[in-house]
Amino acid sequence: MSQRQIKLGAFIPTTSRHAAGWRHPASRPQDHLSFDYAIELAKTAERGLFDAYFLADGLAVNWSHGASKHNKNVGYSDKVVGFEPLTLFVAISAVTKNIGFIATASTTYEEPYLLARKYASLDHISKGRAAWNILTTISTETARNFDLSAHPDAKVRYERADEFIEVVQKLWDSWEDDAFLYDKESDHFFEAAKQHEPLHQGKYFNVQGALNVSRPPQGYPVVVQAGLSEDGRELAAKYAEVIFTAQQSLTDAQAFYRDVKGRLAKYARHADDLKVMPGVSVFVAKTEQEAKEKYALLNSLIHPDVGLGLLSGLAGDIDLSPYDLDAPFPTEDIEIKSNRQQMMFEIAAKNHFSIRQLYEYIVSARGHWTLIGTPEQVVDQLQEWFENEAADGFNVLPPTTPAGLDDFVNFIIPELQRRGLFRIEYEGSTLRENLGLKRPLNQYLVSTQYGCSLLDQPL
Q1: 220 touches 440 (CB < 8 A)
Q2: 8 Å CB contact between 85 and 103
Q3: What percent of the chain is helix, strand and coil (3-state, nearest 5)?
Q4: For residue range 401-414, what is the model confidence (pLDDT) as tens digits?
Q5: CA distance 229 to 365
Q6: Among 84, 122, 390, 394, which residue has the fewest nearby CB atoms (within 10 Å)?
Q7: Which candidate, 322, 283, 268, 324, places its Cα nearest to that of 440?
Q8: How far apart are CA 381 and CA 321, in angstroms?
């Protein structure tokens, strides 16, 4: 179909996204390490024709993401305990057919060779449905688990990430697509001339040998990145094919969209080479009142310590416990150090929120866009962003599982399809095909045959 259509990722941790989602009567937190439950969620997303199942990940027990640092007996964090994403997705790929898998891995705490091997393996096992969400790791707690005295600063993390991705892509190109002959008559298992060693020597990495996995079916697993910072935007412009972002208004979303798309030309890339997908949490029902009641119910289940813990983390790891919860959010007392922090402050100022009101607003989706209403009302807003240079699609964050995911599939998907904004069947068999992304040529082949840098070939 030639008409441009919305792309959808499903962020579905088994414990729910809303900080109190696990307390919802229909939620099943006791199943958060149940493989059968993870399969159930994946199949629901595939029934809804989502492009991909996305999982964030961390390498430490991180209380700031939803559990309370002040009272660790209450709340939970989707980064406290959970499946390692690649392991989970390899297993789920065997019982699904079309949905892609976006697994998070850190460029700060992993090594290029091992990461390239794991993702190439997932791409082969899933027959071309793998994606790597690049994380530089912001949590300072992670350093404690990796024999480091201190967590690297942002500049070092992003420099390392840039070189890391370069090395991984060299490794994925270690073998040309037709290098393996399997010719029994001539006794040629592969053609040696079509194997390339990266011979990489850089500031952070020395990686010499070829990857011991053949080239992934997609050429490269889809490269995904999330971030609002200047360094994050530049890294996305250079490498990312999908970028997740957090925006609250059409104007802000348009500014971000145009900014990252405008950076692509310097890297000889086109606007369609990067899909911008803001996060959105949806509370939907047949009537607006029912949708509002769903939202109010979850917010009524927020323990104050959990709200404070989450808000403190997102607002710059500050201690809000001395303040009156029903007093105005103390923006004047806090130095702004990040874009996410700035967004928190702007939300508080715009809505004249107290601390309690702000955390009730934030816990739904960690600062991402929240929509409440009927299918028509919700899709009106999604369509406005999609048709006005604010989004190529959305990373959907169901507030509860399985109920919130079921609601999106049962209410929102049919309305999107009715308007011609979303597919009625998968377009291809790989994640790249479904996202409308080009398959990269092998960089060694391009450089020898065409005398230029990495090019893309049409699907």
Answers
A1: yes
A2: yes
A3: 40, 15, 45
A4: 999 999 999 999 99
A5: 19
A6: 84
A7: 268
A8: 36
